[in-house]
Each structure stands twice: as C-alpha cells, then as structure tokens.
Write a structure and sequence with these properties.
single chain; 191 residues; 5-stranded antiparallel sheet; 4-stranded antiparallel sheet; alpha+beta; Cyclic Phosphodiesterase, Chain: A
Length: 191
C-alpha cells in the first residue's frame, strides 16, 4: 500500500483552483496537471507499507489532538525549485502556526512504526502541475505571474485523512481510508 496523510479542500476552494487549472492547462499541454478531485495538502507522505501496518498507523493517527482548528488561506502561485527551471507549479498557502505542529505530531506518531521522519521542513502548498518537459512552461509562468495576487479563499480544518494512492496509467487515484478529527475528543471515522 502507498499511503499519505492530508487535509482535503472545501468545495469552494477546489472550485476556484479548478477554474485556474482550466485557464492554464491549454498553455502547457505537456504538463501533468493534478485532477481537481485529487487536490489536497499533504501533511505526511508515508510511502509503501505492508497492509499489516494499516491498523497501527490508524491507531497512531487517531491519538493526535490539537486545541484549535487549522486556519488556511489559499493565495498566490509559484514554482519549485524556481520559475527559471520549474518542475512543479503550486498554489501558496498561509496557515495558522498549528498546521506545522499538526504535521510534526503526525510525523512523530509514525516514527515508532518504522516510518522515517521527515527531513525537510514542512512547507504547506498545493501542487497544481508537474512539468516533465519545457513545452509551454514559459506560457504558464507568464500567466501565473500576471495572476500572482489571486485569492482562492480561506478554510478552517478540524479533520485530516489517511489516503491510499493507486498509481494507474490514467494518473493517480486516491482512496480515503480513514478520517481523523483532531480538535476535541472525537475518534477516527471510516470514510
């Protein structure tokens, strides 16, 4: 199983981002654009694990709690590693400080299960496309720079989710395996 932990997007944010992708996609047909239904904020990429680890992972994640919900604001766009040699296109996220703490708590909870701790600092972002060739990249960079101040909206999150990623010839398919309310005293719910 190939697993990751993520926050979902509210429908109004997903809709605004979908409109952006629809405008930019024709400018770089060679890019691998993320399907709107697959948009998410990764908190922890777990990777490949045996199915016997699923129950312990769910148990570890269900114990994670926070005092306050996570506040998110989706605004602006950028490129990784930079716009001169872009390999990925992303939407920026400004988040309350407890988002980084939530990601760190998830990371720490999974280490005893043999899942490697994250080595890079947590940087919230929403990947919109990946570039495998340079075809059309300059057009996307120019269009994104012209729309740099676009505000896609804000959201409040009180749940994170465990997903399985199935890699198919048509692209990735994400199946939600469990949801975890992290504010208050509730327990994990099935999808």
């Amino acid at each position: 199983m190939r697993l990751f932990v993520a926050l979902d997007l509210p429908d109004q944010i997903r809709s605004a981002i979908t409109e952006l992708i629809a405008k930019l996609q024709p400018k770089s047909p060679g890019a691998r654009w993320i399907k709107p239904e697959n948009l998410h904020i990764t908190l922890k990429f777990i990777g490949h694990v045996g199915s016997e680890k699923l129950a312990p992972i769910r148990s570890a994640l269900s114990a994670i709690r926070a005092v306050d919900p996570v506040e998110l604001h989706f605004r602006g766009m950028g490129f990784f590693p930079n716009e001169r040699r872009p390999r990925a296109f992303w939407c920026g996220i400004t988040a309350s400080p407890n988002l980084a703490q939530l990601a760190a708590d998830i990371d720490r909870a999974l280490v005893p299960l043999g899942i490697d701790a994250e080595r890079r600092p947590f940087t919230p972002h929403l990947t919109l496309a990946r570039f495998k060739s340079d075809k059309g990249i300059r057009n996307v960079v120019q269009a994104a720079n012209a729309m740099q101040c676009t505000d896609f909206g804000a959201a409040t999150q009180t749940n994170f989710h465990l997903y399985e990623s199935l890699l198919k010839s048509t692209g990735a398919q994400y199946n939600r395996l469990a949801s975890f309310p992290f504010v208050g005293g509730s327990t994990a719910a099935a999808p």
